[in-house]
Amino acid sequence: MSLDIIATLSIGFRRSLVNERTPGGHLQRILRPIRIRNNASTIDIICYNLIHMTDPVETSELVAFTKTVDAKSLSRAAAELRVPRATVSRRLARLEERLGARLLRRTTRKLVLTDAGEVFYRQACIALEAVRAAEQSVRTTDDIVRGDLRVSVPPMTSAGLHAMLCEFAARHPELRVHIHTSNQHVDLLRGDYDVALRASSQIEPGLIARTLLRDPIIAVASPAYLANRGTPRTPRDLKSHSCLLGFTRGELPETHWPMTTGGKLHVEGTFFSNDIALLCEAAVNGLGIALLPRDLVSPHLVSGALVQVLVGVVGAELHIALVYPERTFLPPQVRAFIDTVAAWIPRELTASQPLSSPAPSSVGTKKTARRSSRKRTGGD
């Protein structure tokens, strides 16, 4: 393995210690050359060995380690790598010996990452991605984008976004595009996905976010439902109404609706779905009151199929962000996708219905998780 990759591992490992607040991650002792003492922490030893090792870590050892973690089994990792199980075990033992630390605890039933192994795993994924990106840059001698692109998107996406995704795939016929739709936040640092569109401003450490859109979330119902059940005038009135509830990142429905003045209001649901388009259809069909993005319901507001209720009282702002891992080497397919999305947003805003008091888009402005964290602490 090259010295650049070793540097990526050691620097990234130290950054992770600070971000993760890992016990024993004393930055001052790590940054300067140290002599291993009897009371040095496991993490200190790993960092020291990464920087000073004369027998560098091999890529095959990192691959064996990350595959074993992902597969949760030595046998399955060996099958995926098409090597004997003993080979994977030997590479793991050699890696732990080089680092001077235990990364995995092996029992008869399962493999468990140690604290040091958890942090090292994340940086190993980044280092391997850098190797793959370097290999691809050497192979690519033209402007054709190849390989695989794995994208996670939330269910609350517009028809314009769907068209953009199809247009992107058609423009790059030699690229395999994998689109996964889910309410769950995928772990981009594990390497299962390259980039994600998220309906949230909450970003984990180690990720970069570009805010693409800010869309008001409003309460709506059909005229037929309101004629039958009455129009709510105050938040308290919602207690006597049927509410159509979606799911957030967990398995439980979102039973607390945001107030524009701050705080949340508890509501009772009669219809539940993690498909936001279905919730919109349920509202149009008079099943109850739903809290939905204005961009989604705008055509129904124009046609009169839906009416906004509790204007200026119930609602919030939905943040749609493009999120991807913070790394030195960005694969060509990821860069191409980011550029396509950044170019698509202005066209989408021009073509769509104007939003009420829209906030300016920050496309092209990167913000790391640490900056986001400081901003949120200041009252975001």
How would you describe what is shown here?
With 380 residues, this protein is α/β, with parallel strands linked by helices. The chain has two domains: 136 residues, Winged helix-like DNA-binding domain superfamily/Winged helix DNA-binding domain (Arc Repressor Mutant, subunit A, Orthogonal Bundle), CATH 1.10.10.10; 240 residues, D-Maltodextrin-Binding Protein, domain 2 (3-Layer(aba) Sandwich), CATH 3.40.190. The chain is 43% helix and 19% strand. It is built from 13 helices and 14 strands. The protein is elongated. The N terminus and C terminus are likely disordered.
- Tally of individual domains: 2
The overall pLDDT average reads 74
What is the second-level CATH architecture of the largest domain? 3-Layer(aba) Sandwich
Report how far the terminal alpha carbons are from each other. Answer: 43 Å
Number of strands: 14
Q: How is the main sheet built?
A: 10 strands, mixed
Order of helices and strands: HHHHHHEEHEHEEEHEEEEHEHEEHEH
Query: Which stretches of 5+ consecutive residues score pLDDT under 50?
Result: 1-8, 10-40, 350-380
Number of helices in the DSSP assignment: 13
Q: Which bin fits the share of residues in helices?
A: 40-55%
Shape: elongated
Q: In angstroms, what is the radius of gyration?
A: 25 Å
What is the CATH topology classification name of the largest domain? D-Maltodextrin-Binding Protein, domain 2
The CATH class of the largest domain, by name, is Alpha Beta
Class by SSE composition: alpha/beta
In percent terms, what proportion of residues is strand? 15-25%
